[in-house]
Amino acid sequence: MTPSPAQGPRFSPLSVIALIAWVGVLVALSMWMGQLSYHWLPVQASTAAPLVDGLFSFETAVGTFVFGGVISVMVWVIVMHRAEKYDASDAEPIEGNTRLEIIWTAIPFVLVMAIAVYAMRVNTTLGMLGPMEHIHLRSSVEQAGGYPGDRLPAEQVEVIARQWSWEFRYPGSDVSTTELHLAVDEPVTFRLVSEDVLHGFFIPAFRLKQDIVPGRAIDLNVTPTREGRYRLRDSQFSGTWFAANQADVVVESVEAHQAWLEAAARQPLQSGLSDASLEYAQRGQSRKAGWATVPPAPPPQVNVPGSNTQPHDG
Amino acid sequence: MTTAYPAPNAEPQHVEGHEKHNLTGFIIFLCSESVIFLAFFSGYALLKTSALDWLPPGVEGLEWQMPLINSVVLVSSSGTIYLAERAMAKGNIWGFRAFWLLTMALGSYFLYGQAVEWSGLQFGFTSGTFGGTFYLLTGFHGLHVATGVGLMTLMLIKSFIPGNYNGGEQGVQATSLFWHFVDVIWIILFVLIYVWQRS
Amino acid sequence: MTLATFPASEPKPSWTRYFSFNTDAKVIGIQYIVLAFFFFLIGGLLAMIIRGELITPEADLVDRTVYNGIYTMHGTVMLFLFIFPVLNGLNNLLIPTMIGAPDMAFPRLNAVAFWLVPIFGVLLMSSFFVPGGPAYSGWWSYPPVSIQNPLGHLISGQGLWLTAVALSGVSSIMGAVNFVTTIIRMRAPGMGWFRMPVFCWTALAAQSLQLIGLPSLTGGAIMLLMDLVAGTTFYDPAGGGDPVLYQHFFWFYSHPAVYVIILPVFGIFSELFPVYARKPLFGYVYVALASFIIVGLGLIVWVHHMFPSGVAEWMRNLFMFTTMLIAVPTGVKVFAWLGTLWRGKLRLTTPMLFCLGGLFNFVFAGITGIMLATVPIDLHVSNTYFVVGHFHYVIYGAAVMGIFAGIYHWFPKFIGRMPYEGLGKLHFLLTFVGANLNFLPMHPLGLMGMPRRVSSYDPEFAFWNVLASLGAFLLGVSIIPFLLNMVSSWVRGPKATHNPWNAIGLEWLLPSPPAEDNFGEHVPVVISRPYGYGLGKPLVEHQAEIEQALALAEQQEAAR
User: What's the predicted TM-score (pTM) here?
Assistant: First the structure.
């Protein structure tokens, strides 16, 4: 990638060896960065995560190489090609080189197309893990009558985003909660709906993100692969308590999940988690300066509020 | 490839060069202005194709005969403004004024017809996306027609300044260009709103 | 051609012209730049509050509503009241002088376009004081959040915001018509397209993008304003509208807007590297043409901002490919600059340091940009701090640093005095370290899953946020030597000669500062390409005589 000058004869064999050695160092550095990049990401907790991370690692390595190459040239010229003090003369006037232009058009072109093709394959594989999304407009009947549980498959979870709380409904078990529980290695389909504004369904450990658009129901498939407690974050700005609009995601064994569902179904309905409602109530008491806000929707009535304060894995 | 910048010694030429910039600038502006219509058109098409219930309750569709007459009026005014420009090119200043005035009359009639149509409709600006886009598109276009008539009035007044149009007039060319632009927009708009009624 | 005898001293024009409806492009240029930096300080202050809030995980410094208003206004002020005006200021100073025109094509329109900026600036600032506070839905103003209008008043912060943005659009379109017309029609005799400086190429490209893209945002904003105040439902799903439609309108402009910002900065790099490396620009024609390839591609990539918004799979793939392609013409430029530096005779002056630092940051931003273009990675990091880090590297790390380079480089030309090198280098050091310390930690934060626009966050993000905040405060301090430098050198800096950097270009054949009508009637005839360093060919006819006359006038001035 480094624009080695076209004037070949001016380069001694020693400098060619030095250049090759430096490229070797850069390649090694890039591969090391590619490996390192896995540690910058949260734990892998879904079938999608290794695919995304592999692509990210690849791009980190390529990017490190390109960056290293360009910066090497910059450092080289800054150190070696500085004008002498009081030297007011011009340098040798090289106006361009068509061959070089073709090379540094073609190589980046091939490189980015290779990345794009790789990314598209990952995309396709992600799609095979479960269609990434299937958008259907919510009919007015559904909007009016709430939630037609009997028409949905058992492993489907309806996710209702509000300003500012998350509600999860398990139609097969007639359970609702503000803490998302999933069985490990079991595919699940989320049906994402919003009752007010745009929200974003984002579980970093799953490497998944999907905006929730009011007026649409969007299906999203995922297969969790690791037991643990993770965070679901609202990723599309949704107003005053956007930052507090988070929920916990608990991935547990199939048996534990079944037991949880059964226990949950026996619980009476109670107010779910809504940090926004708590803060809003306090806001009425304290006279801290603030601007106007939309009041939070009342906390959803759920069987199990769960928790969003326990330590999480990612 | 080389420039048309006027020779650096002649003051009158300098002024004329400046006049030529006006037309260049105006054409650039029109290109930009067309994008805003393009945005509205694509928004209209997108909302219409994705709508569950496009027409508001109680609305059957749009009556198209009167708008068609209106369209014929507006499109023919493109012809009259061309004739006005031709007359001016031949130095026939009264012919220019006559055709110019006729164009203004046709444009004004179009605005009148639009107002009559609006007042007879049983939906408003806030009747869903159908009402919103209908009034937005026709209103925004109507605003352009009104601007065009205003520009023509200005040019007509300027034509009475003695000797003003002897060397050709960029303002007239620009106004005429604007008028053709408004016409073309209307044709697209008519097809989108009145012809394409079935969703 | 008879030689122009430059008057040794003209009656010194009054400073009050900077506060009047002046139609001289050079006055307007300085008006734009000074006003832009006034708003830069306001936007910077808002950034300090943002980073102050984010130095701890809890929302404790300001109320959440205040935080949301402040981050919205930070972005809006920086884009519409700093970066666009400052670039228009440079356009005003440089385009007429570089192409040898006496002024812009439409001087009065130019002045109107400028005076709209303080008007909508005041309008936007006034939204801090209306009941309910300013707009709070981010500079994207995505509906339905942006049309919620909690107090229900007709005059709301969001309404004022939309009006200000619309006026900004009107001002930008006026400017764009003017710049494009000027470049097309008013070039010096002999200056064909491929003898035009690259800055003018990039300005032409950027302003063409404004003309094509901006009306889309204006149309979208008109519909949003109607939804907000008139009760229409263009974007409200409850009335059959579609919130995603707005996103298309918005990004159809706002992605190209990034190129409107970065292209002129590419122009600055292309102007400055040859001067301070004492070599011709490597592959001038390719660098010039690449600008227009970027324009073409820049118009067909906007959906990459909407990968998680609910667009079809084929659209995601298509826009991933187009976005990737932008790397190619951009790469051509980057490699051309490296080719220019290679085997040059580098002078590490303040403008050169800013260019090198800007290029460093830009290459980094380009690599994270490629990552963001790939759909699977984007689905993880979009709307996280990774994106915030990426675009701050572009806008601050590359664009603002390039703008500083341009200001230090052309300051002597238009002010007539030299800026101080020591303060300039201190400014560079603080900016470069501050920017990297501020924006680099945002990348790990985003990868870990910290969403953007949050007023509070989970404790595991605290470490990188503290680093970023420290970087931000350093960046806040970095502006002090700049302001000191500008004010003191403007008042009592050493007098500048007509060509203190020994640069090639029409603007350097004018006295410093140039007369009001630049070359007036005596526009030199351009006979060669720009950047002829080391070639020994004159740029214009009678170049030696012109330079002698300028030097003579300077000697007489000094003797007085």
Answer: 0.93
